[in-house]
Structure formats: structure tokens, C-alpha cells
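Dear colleagues,

I hope this message finds you well. In preparation for our joint manuscript, I am sending the Thymine dioxygenase (Mycena albidolilacea) sequence together with its predicted structure, so that both groups work from identical material. I would be grateful if you could confirm receipt.
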Amino acid sequence: MDEGTLNASAIPIIDFGPFLDGFNKHEVAGKMVSSFKEIGFVYLMNHGIPTEKSAEMFEWSKRFFAQPMEVKKLAPHPPSGAHHRGYSSPGQEKVVQHVYHPDAIAEQRAQAPDVKESFECGREEDELQPNIWLPEGVLPGFKEACLDFFWLCHGVELNILRALAIGLGLSEDYFLQYHTDPRNQLRLLHYPSVPTEGLETEKIARIGQHSDFGSITLLLQDDVGGLEVEDPNVAGSFCPAPPIPGALVVNAGDFLMRWSNDTIRSTIHRVRAPPQNRSVDGMTPERYSIPYFCCADFTTVVDCIPGTWSAERPKKYEPISAQEYIMKRMLATY
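The corresponding C-alpha cells are as follows:
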């Protein structure tokens, strides 16, 4: 990839089928790791999430966000980001990038608000972050659909981690031993229709520029568009990562980048107005997406992956536990 030439076509589209059926594991794994080293993002086809399952989850998401505000607030997200579960209303969360001091967090939160609403859940038996559901009888079937989709995504996550391990020259189960206790987060996102001019002038934001902070993120998006990825060679230059029918967007998070001694990139991205002028009467259409954030076991203490450091390429970071790192990042968002 030449400097300054990142565009949508620079994010590879990879058929994951030959990895899943064992036909050509090493070639697929090599392509994935190459993309993660260069761009930090990849589109996966034949990834293991059936089209009908993703369509069903999007329908549940639309049904949930169509509920009156007083109903959605029956499953309220706690005030602290340390407990990332339940419903967040527009403007409640402000994504910040590597900012931890209270004054700096307040300064970033005072900028254009993130005009989105979300619902988050994890596995039921997570004692650190228990799920927060709507009361029994309100939107029947929603809880079951979310949990079913959570575990479906978890299975896909493990296959992707297997591929990354092979691509890095490690044993196939290398990352699996550190992902045995899923502290993952399924997030349903709804971006209401907003004035296009407000997005273009950055008076309002859908999600400001940020990197994810776990191991990897899986993303399903509707056909509206608006996701943009920063060119890793040109700071501040972004290109669209448009929806591709049937594709799963996968990107590396900061924790994996640190784990790999910066061999793998965790790339800045954001959500703005769609690249095409799709506004109607000056309003950008509403958008839905479903990210699934994956992180290592909280007991994992990250040092550098074998093969990513040497005397000529020394370790850049001190060891840190997944729990310490993830919680620090979560607390900054609320």
C-alpha cells in the first residue's frame, strides 16, 4: 500500500470459507495478518454468521430502539463506564481517545456530542458486569435473541483468533488460551436521523474518531454507510469503509496492538455522514450497526507475543493485565 493512497478498496475482502473448511488455512491466515499489519481492518466473507441470523438481529435492534424512551430506560446503563450494560440514550456516552485525566475527559466530552443510542449485553453469568434487561414481559424474545447472537459471534471470534495465530506463526490455539472466559460485549447501535450540515461541520457527531480497546471487534452494518477509517500513513486522512453485502468488518483493538508490540495496527476510525449525499430535506438517514467487542480474559497479563520482539526490536510496553487496561478505557467513556 503506497503512502497517502488508502481508499475503500485498500481494505481487503477475504473469503474466510477456505479457513473454516480447512481447505487453505495458511493462505487465509496470512492475508488476514498482512491486512492487520498494514491497515488494521479487513472485510470477511463466509465468516460463519448466517445472513438470516444477522437480519433477525437487526430487526430486534430496530424493535428495541422503536420503543418509547420511558420503556428503553427500564434497562438503564449505570452512570459509570465500569459497568457497560443496558440502554444509553443519545448523548450519554462520549467516545474519547486515550484520555484518562478527569480534566481532559471533561474537555473532550464538551465537544460535539455523540448522537447515538445503544444497548449492550454480555454473557449472563458475568459477575463483574451483569446484564441489565427490560422487565419480564416487555419486548418478549429480545433477551433470548441477544444472548443467542452473543454466543454465535463468540464462535466466530474464536475462529478469527485461530487464523491470526497461524498468520503470526504461532500454534493455532495460542490466543484461545487467553480467551476462555468471554468478557465480550454485544452492542446494538442506532444513529437517529440528524441534519447533514451538523455532521459535516462537526457540530454534532455520530461517533468521533477513536480506536477500539480490546483484542478484536466484529462489526455488522446496515446499508446506510458512514464508517470511515484513518489512513495509517497519513494522520487525519480518512476514507470510507462502506457496507458490503454479506461482509463482516473485523478490526484489531489497542490491546492486541500492544500485545503484538505494535506489529498489528489498531486503526483510528469514526462514523460520520455517508460518503454519498443521501440526505432527504437536509437530514441524514438513520443508521443501525452491531459491533461485538472481544477482549482477553481479565486475568491475562499481556507481555509481547513471541516473534514480535527481539534485540533489534525491543519491547515497547510494560506488562499489563487485561482487566486493568480495559477498565481504564471504559471508565473514560461515561
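For the figure legend, we might mention the following. The chain is about 30% helix and 20% strand. The chain has one domain: 8-331.

With kind regards,
E.M.
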